[in-house]
From TrEMBL:
Topology of the protein relative to the lipid bilayer: Multi-pass membrane protein
Major place of residence: membrane
Organism taxonomic ancestry: Bacteria, Pseudomonadati, Pseudomonadota, Gammaproteobacteria, Pseudomonadales
Protein name: Diacylglycerol kinase
Subcellular localization, as worded in the UniProt entry: Cell inner membrane
Species of origin: Pseudomonas khorasanensis
Transmembrane segments: 33-53, 60-82, 102-119
Catalyzed reaction equations: a 1,2-diacyl-sn-glycerol + ATP = a 1,2-diacyl-sn-glycero-3-phosphate + ADP + H(+)
Length: 120
């Protein structure tokens, strides 16, 4: 058992929820890309309720939008960890940040592809 682990049971869940809200708040206030994706989700997710698609298709349209938010949170976390370690330019740091960016590119491409396949 790790000495860095916190509480268990309900206390752990409450603590984890607080940390999650702190993370969302930090991403929204500190990451322009996250705010842009939130705006995209504010537009696209409600739009699905007005489209003539099945419930499964609607779920897929929403899921890919939310997936892009998840990927952006992970990308921002990687960038923050890399910057915390060192602001020095290093090939491994560049690779890590570029791979996070590539993951976000794939997630955004998935939005475009899934929406196109379902709507066209």
């Amino acid at each position: 058992m790790s000495p860095f682990k916190g509480q268990t049971g309900l206390k752990r869940i409450l603590n984890a929820s607080g940390y999650s809200l702190d993370g969302l708040r930090a991403a929204f206030t500190g990451e322009a890309a996250f705010r842009q994706l939130v705006l995209l989700n504010v537009v696209l997710v409600p739009l699905t309720f007005f489209l003539n698609v099945s419930r499964v298709e609607q779920a897929l349209l929403i899921a890919v939008c939310l997936l892009a938010l998840i990927v952006e949170l992970l990308n921002s976390a990687v960038e923050a960890a890399i910057d915390r370690i060192s602001l020095e330019l290093h090939p491994l740091s560049k690779n890590a940040k570029d791979m996070g960016s590539a993951a976000q590119f794939v997630a955004l491409s998935m939005i475009a592809l899934v929406w196109a396949v379902i709507l066209l």
